[in-house]
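ARCHIVE RECORD
Type: protein–small molecule complex
Small molecule: S-adenosylmethionine
Source of inputs: curated submission
Record status: active
Notes field left blank by submitter.
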Amino acid sequence: MSPSHNPRDLEFTDHDFQRIRKLIHDHAGIALSDAKRDLVYSRLTRRLRIHEFDTFAEYISLLEKQNDEWELFVNSLTTNLTSFFREPHHFPILSEHIASIRQRQPILLWCSAASTGEEAYSMAITMAELFNSFNPPVRILATDIDTHVLLKARSGIYTQDKIEKLSDATRRRFFIENADNTVTVHPELRNMINFQQQNLVSSNWLFRGPFDAIFCRNVMIYFDKETQTKILRNFIPVMRRDGLLFAGHSESFHHANDLFTIKGRTVYGIAQTSQSLAQA
Ligand SMILES: C[S@@+](CC[C@H](N)C(=O)[O-])C[C@H]1O[C@@H](n2cnc3c(N)ncnc32)[C@H](O)[C@@H]1O
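STRUCTURE (tokenized, with ligand):
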């Protein structure tokens, strides 16, 4: 059998796994457990084939000297599962919070691990419904480390099955049907959102807020507690004092209760002790 037909023909040692683990942890904060060894192999196989390498050691050497490969390396190792109105209990809470501060304009929201865009568009739909307008006084920043998913997010094009759980009214109001079994998000909804690449772990964030709410859902789970705390600490200066932080269903920030305190189911507010670091 030729090497390209054998799924396990590439040399991948424990040492290679440890090096890859360190590279992705140092760069993106992603902490890979021992159990993720097979996943790393399968996710990176395509990159090795493209470069015609037989060993992971060759690929790691390329990464160490060639910056262009980094983007594709990171894109290969991220997990991008998402959906419209995932963990739906958060959206009425977002709506109520923004309703209570609606005189503050513009309202700024940050979707900080936006993946292919469904979460940011769900936030935009929630705001369009709250203000009963396709042009509400709301700006949404949507970021992700993965450049590939951001391309999809910006396109605003999804297959029909991605919106099948939404109500008929929401589908009709916010999506345009295309001929090829896909839908396009309404352009005015799209205009509310600015999609940008941003690594949450980087200490160099390109924006200052002040954000009235941050969605940081189902991404902290990939980071160790130390990285989580660093990110949480960085959120505070770009948030309003009364801003809300939304986390994923299996994420909790009890270890950083000097920074954020729980206000509802996986919803956090800035702790009293850190209020002075946030924006008024
Ligand atoms: C499982 S998806 C969650 C998407 C969405 N927030 C949701 O809950 O449906 C996790 C996303 O986090 C992104 N991600 C991973 N590490 C990141 C980092 N260091 N900075 C920014 N985004 C990151 C991944 O690229 C991926 O798109």
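CURATOR ANNOTATION: The CA atoms of residues 95 and 130 lie 6 Å apart.
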